[in-house]
Amino acid sequence: MWIGTKDGLNRYDGHEFHVFKHIINDTTSICANSITGLSVDADSILWIGTASSGLASYDFREWKI
Which residues, listed in sequence order, are joined to residue 47 by a DSSP beta bridge? Predict the structure, then answer.
C-alpha cells in the first residue's frame, strides 16, 4: 500500500513502513516530500504528484523488500 503525506512517500508491506523522502543532491530520491497524488498505471509505474516539484515516477517492481 502506498501512502502520500506532507512528509514523504510511505509504503506499507503488511508488516512495516518504508519511508521515501527527498534527499538534497541525491538524484535517486523522490523529487519532493509533499505528496499530493498517487496513481499506478498498467505498466506498474507509480506516478507521484508533488506540491512543489511536479510529477515523478517510480517503477516499484524493482523495489526489494
Answer: 39, 57
SS3 content of the chain, % helix, strand, coil (to 5): 5, 50, 50
Q: Is the Cβ–Cβ distance between 63 and 44 less than 8 Å? A: no
pTM of the model: 0.82
> What confidence tens digit (pLDDT) does each residue in 3-54 have?
999 999 999 999 999 999 999 999 888 999 999 999 999 998 999 999 999 9
Strand partners of residue 58: 46
Which SS3 state, helix, strand or coil, does residue 44 take? Answer: coil
CB 20 within 8 A of CB 5: no
